[in-house]
Amino acid sequence: DAIFLGKLMAMLAMSFVGIAFWGGTAFAVFLALHGGASGLPAPAVGWPVFLLLAVVYFAMAYTLLGSLFLGIGAQAATVREVQTLNMPVTMGQMLIFFFASYAVDHMGSMPEIAACIFPFSSPFAMIARAAQAPAIWPHLVAIVWQGLFVALIIRVGVLLFRRHVMQSGGRWWKRLFRTTTG
């Protein structure tokens, strides 16, 4: 469990470093070209809450997809197999992003509500909602829902990783919800 979670958290930390660097660079260029941040429209929830939600939603989306990719990668013996197994997930990821992008323009509609509920599109749809609607409680509900789904995907990924990479562990369906190792 620790190896899988260590890999996942290291990937997340590296992505935060990259985003901080490139985001800071882009913001500095924006400030230099436009003479200040006054040209940016304020999100509905306000900048501090919006930035906090952006970090949380990014972490949720990244850990969800990262654990999915690590779990799938644990099933392969070669890099070619990893690429072959991950291609459908990557295509699905693009479809989910397009679905969330479509839902952004249709606040309150069934597609937008579905995008907010479906765990893979929820982080994208909810950060768009934070920019457009001032209510905070939907974000608290979404973060709890996403956290539960992230925990489930991580748990399944850990079991697959343990079984195929570490070559330990018994029947995964018996150990799916067991929290102690013994």
Structural features:
single chain; 182 residues; mainly alpha; 7 helices
Structure commentary:
The protein is an all-alpha fold and 182 residues long. The protein is built from 7 helices and no strands. The two termini are 13 Å apart. The mean pLDDT is 87.
What global shape is seen? Answer: globular
How much helicity do the residues have? over 70%
Low-confidence stretches: none
Whole-number average pLDDT?
87
Euclidean distance between termini CA atoms: 13 Å
- Rounded to the nearest angstrom, the radius of gyration is 19 Å
Output the number of helix runs.
Answer: 7
Number of DSSP strands? Answer: 0
Class based on secondary structure composition and strand pairing: mainly alpha
Give the amount of beta strand, in percent.
under 5%
**Biggest sheet record:** none
Q: Assembly state here? A: single chain
SSE topology string: HHHHHHH
Task: Give the helices and strands, then pairings.
Layout: H1 2-34, H2 47-73, H3 79-104, H4 110-117, H5 122-132, H6 137-164, H7 172-175
Describe, in short, the structure shown.
With 182 residues, the chain is mainly alpha-helical.
